[in-house]
Amino acid sequence: MAPRKAAATASKATAAAPKKAPAAAKSKKTKTAAAAAPKKAAAAKKTAAPKKAPAAATKAAPAKKTTAASSKKIPAVDSDKENAEATKPKANTKRKRAAEDEAAEESAEEEASPPPAKKARKIAEPKAKKAAPAHKERKPLKAINEPPTTVLDVYVFGAGENGELGLGADRFEGKRPKEVKRPRLNHNLKGKGVVQIGCGGMHVVALTKDNKLLTWGVNDNCALGRNTQWDGGLRDVDAEEEDDPEESGLNPLESTPMEVDTSEIEENTTFVQVVGSDSASFALTSEGKVYGWGTFRASDGILGFTEKIHEQPRPTLLPELKKIKQLATGTNHVLALDDKGKIFAWGDGAQNQLARKVFEREILQSLRPVGIGNLPLRGAKPVKITCGSYHSFVLDSQGRVFGWGLNQYGQVGHRYDPQDESTKVQLKPRLVEALADYKIKDIAGGEHHSVACTEDGKVLTFGRVEGHLLGLDEDVYNEDNTVYEEKNDQKLPHSLFKPIPLEDVPPVASVAVGVDTSFAVTTEGQVYSWGFSVGFQTGQGQTDDVEEPTLIDNTAIRGKKVIFAGSGGPYSVL
Fold first, then answer.
1. 3-state secondary structure 78-91
2. What stretches of residues are RCC repeats (predicted)?
């Protein structure tokens, strides 16, 4: 992303965004919104019809019973005499009651309001309180976080088969809204005042300067926090054949940035950060509160949003979290750092990414934010949290890195030994000794690799060697820094456990990693990318792997100062 030039501002920059889930999981999920929409509509019909039918029957039944009962209570009589005799007591009773009522009225006039009026006041008062929610009158808490204020231009590229690019459903200026090979300005976000972006696996969340939350992309599990049900639209029979597929392939409600449903959010709430996981989104407020929506998934399907909520359709407050300063997300887990340096983790913990053991019989307890405990070194003060797909990192005030979670390629920073199963995961935060010789200022993780940058701007990579994820030449791997594996009677490099600085990259300010694509943003505002590029997510205009860090350069971003890069699975944002 790049800062946007305002009337009184001279500088202009670029912006970027996302984060992604495992490529394998995404490929299973890939589909067009047009195909998904009818299913949602059908589902709605199935659930709505039964509810209305029983309700109508329930109301009708009592009415019939009452009518039948009343007809039985009025006995059939044989003569007018009997009728007269039967009505005498009732008439006397009526006269007595009338006299009593008259006396009661006289007494009531001498005193205060009659009982009916008192009852009306008692009922009305609570209703008035309910009509005016307490949060509207609440005393604001002290702000501990400041919202970003620099307005950004947002550039997108990648496959965008499910609306992740936010370019809408139709061509714009003759260009298709998907399969964008190089950075393209998102015209739907012009004038929206975007100040920050969070990338999920196949969706994006954006925060605007006027405190709005925008989302776009896949909404299968309520990750967008709003209703995107669409009937598929009507085919334009007069449209040219070559244009029709482009106009009907995407759900416009998913592929176009739109506001999140904030009806359950307290008034006067100010947002400062947004993040996205594979199927959920979260927003941090200036008071340190956290709102979330969507759901978490496990290997066998939906895990849930909380212990009691399967899918959360719109933002809801997470009451366990208070005075939070930062949020970070992996594929299906979240970290939160509070103002005292305490770190909370929740979501799917099957790969130990929550820094605690999760037992099958108590698996839903992993959806509750719980502290991970102290870092292993005395005096270590956490200042930054980040996540890979299934692993997590904490950066302390001295530039040291602690990591835990899935480590089968050494992506946590600890050497993986194929002969020792205990090295496949790291349960608790542990100092990444391979980075101990450097002062780290930023670190990011993908599915099987990680990237860090030092205070003096060097870029370090470690983890899986295959697929050019590390951006290194093959001749740098040896027995001193690499774990090898036997494959097809060949000894091949498996994982790099000793980080090696990348060459030919100018001093770097920050790094970002998608599932298997990496980015380095330089101090001068340029961006280098490398890794998996089958969906054009490197921004290099090619589907072959980008073997080494390569400058992203086209007319759209040339001359812009990029200050952010992000990536999901099949898309990326600047």
1. CCHHHHHHHHHHHH
2. 152-210, 288-340, 341-398, 399-456, 457-524, 525-574
Tokens for 201?
A: 């696996």
Position of tokens 């409600």?
Answer: 253
- Segments in 187-289 forming alpha helices (H): 244-248, 252-255
Q: Is the dihedral of CA 539, 545, 549, 553 positive or negative?
A: negative
Report the CATH number of the 152-501 domain: 2.130.10.30
Which phi and psi (to 5°) does residue 143 adopt? -75, 130
Closest Cα to residue 564, out of 6, 9, 22, 19? 19
Q: Where are the alpha helices (DSSP H) in 187-251?
A: 244-248
Question: CA torsion angle for 16, 19, 22, 23 (degrees, to 10)?
Answer: -20
Residue 202 CA to residue 508 CA, distance in Å, equals: 27
Q: Could you read off the pLDDT of 16-67 as tens digits, one per residue? A: 433 343 333 343 343 333 333 333 333 333 333 333 333 333 333 333 333 3
Q: Which helix (H) or strand (E) holds 343?
A: strand 343-347
DSSP helix/strand/coil, 115: helix
First to last CA, the chain: 4
Asked whether 358 and 350 are in contact (CB, 8 A), the reply is yes
Pair 207, 199: CB distance under 8 Å: no
Please tell me the distance from the alpha carbon of residue 186 to that of residue 165, in angstroms, as a whole number.
Answer: 8
Could you tell me the residue ranges of all domains in the chain?
Answer: 152-501
What are 213-271's pLDDT values in tens digits? 999 999 999 999 999 998 875 445 455 544 454 454 899 999 999 999 998 899 899 99
Among 384, 328, 388, smallest CA distance to 516 is for 388
* Matching residue, tokens 């007069």: 238
CA distance 179 to 250: 13
Residue 399, phi-psi category: left (phi > 0), alpha (psi -120 to 50), beta (remainder): left
Nearest to residue 200, comparing CAs of 297, 320, 62, 314?
297
Is 430 within 8 Å of 415 (Cβ atoms)?
no
Residue 13 · residue 561 · CB < 8 Å = yes
Rounded CA separation 567/446 (Å): 10
553-562 in b/e form (b: 16+ CB < 10 A) is: eeebbeebbb
Produce one character per residue of 391-417: b if its CB has 16 or more CB atoms within 10 Å, e if not.
bbbbbbeeebbbbbbbbbbbbbbbbbe
Helix, strand, coil fractions of the chain, as percent rounded to 5: 25, 30, 45
